[in-house]
Amino acid sequence: MAEIKQLKAIYCRDFGYDCNAVMKGRNPDEAIDAVVKHFVSMHGNSVRDLQTPEKRAEIGAKIKDWEAPPKNG
Ligand SMILES: [Zn+2]
């Protein structure tokens, strides 16, 4: 297995949803795609509204570096 690269993560609650979902990707595009899918399937948003460059940029602005939760605790 290749070394695991730093993943990108986007937290659903950063968009004001009462939701614990975290969407991860190996790069920003992948993470944004995961968020779009999640918003459509879980929050009833429309794909058309989410696939605009403005909306993707807005989602991309919330990207953080994923840190795996500590094993203990
Ligand atoms: Zn959510």
In short:
This protein has one domain. About 40% of the residues lie in helices and about 15% in strands. It contains 3 helices and 3 strands.
What does this structure look like?
Strands 2-1-3 form a 3-stranded antiparallel beta sheet, with helices on one face. The longest helix is centred in the middle third of the chain and has 16 residues, at 28-43. With 73 residues, the protein is an alpha+beta fold. It has helices at residues 28-43, 47-50, 53-60, and strands at 8-11, 22-25, 64-65. It starts with 7 loop residues before the first strand and ends in an 8-residue tail after the last strand. It has 3 helices and 3 strands. The chain binds zinc ion.
Overall average residue pLDDT: 92
- Number of strand elements: 3
Beta-strand fraction estimate:
5-15%
Number of domains: 1
Return the structural class.
Answer: alpha+beta
Q: Roughly how much helix do the residues carry, as a percent range?
A: 25-40%
Protein topology:
Elements: E1 8-11, E2 22-25, H1 28-43, H2 47-50, H3 53-60, E3 64-65
Antiparallel strand pairs: 1-2, 1-3
The chain binds zinc ion.
Keywords:
73 residues, alpha+beta, 3 strands, 14% strand, binds zinc ion
